[in-house]
Design brief:
This protein is globular. It has helices at residues 13-21, 27-32, 36-49, 55-77. It has one domain. The chain is mainly α and 78 residues long. The chain is built from 4 helices and no strands. Helix content is 67%, strand content 0%.
Length: 78
């Protein structure tokens, strides 16, 4: 399936999740079209690790966010 090109704007997270799940956008698009804050955090994540801002690092960033979310959820149960 051919990926769609997103306009240079931010999208609703649930809309982005649906497009990602349907294979219409990449993980990089998912990360960089959510909000200014998410885009900024992703850029900082890449800079701290000295890695390029690309599809692979976007996937690693998303995994990082999921681990952090899981960790904070688990700590909240204590």
């Amino acid at each position: 399936m051919e990926k769609m090109t997103l306009e240079n704007r931010f999208y609703n997270p649930s809309e982005l999740a649906r497009m990602l799940y349907d294979g219409k956008i990449s993980g990089f698009d998912y990360v960089t079209h959510q909000s200014e804050e998410t885009t900024h955090d992703f850029k900082e994540y890449c800079a701290r690790r000295a890695v390029p801002e690309n599809e692979e690092s976007a996937g690693n960033y998303l995994n990082h966010l999921l681990r952090e979310e899981g960790r904070s959820h688990t700590e909240g149960l204590d």
